[in-house]
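Beta-phosphoglucomutase
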Amino acid sequence: MIMPKAFIFDLDGVITDTAELHYQAWKRLADSLGITIDREFNEELKGVGRMESLEKILALDPKQSDLSLERKEALATEKNDHYVDLLGTISEDDILPGITDLLKTIRQQGIKVGLGSASKNATHVLKELKLIDQFDYIVDAAQVSKGKPDPETFTNAADHFGVDYVECIGIEDAPSGVTAVNSADMFSVGVGTAEALPHAEYRVDNTTELDFDSIIQAYQSFGVSAKAE
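Structure:
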């Protein structure tokens, strides 16, 4: 039986849902600039790095088109300060359903567990959730030169573990994240709707359906065997 050697998880939308906190932080910044954003627009920011998200928001107002890099970096820092303040409200109760049991099962099987997040606050979030000890390695935005959908976030983790990419499973909820997993030649598990994640090699509607045995069966049937051909 072929088993994967590493699971690499996204953070937001997979381990916990901090999307609302990101939205509140971005909205506070946008409001201060006289720019209006809503939750529908916020969907475009999921899985996207901080500076790229800022550029998307600034693009809504032509008057902000000539801001200096220094000013943009200051705005990105301001948003992050808002977000970190909001992070003080999260706890173990904010771990998404099914994740704690899945992590426990993976570790019992002796499989490495990594985190691949676009957030520079990933370690802080895991500490707040009291999950930091469940992860063998953490990749955040500070450790990669190219964010998702580039595969570097995931290949960085696999390289750290010293395992082949085809021996890894990546779990993502964002289209750009699934693209990154696929581009890394890993087996992609998507959490979300079929409409949003048609390119996921295995998909569930929500984290309660992330069953270890089902994921492994799909990996063995459609992952390793297909990539080995």
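The chain has a mean pLDDT of 93.
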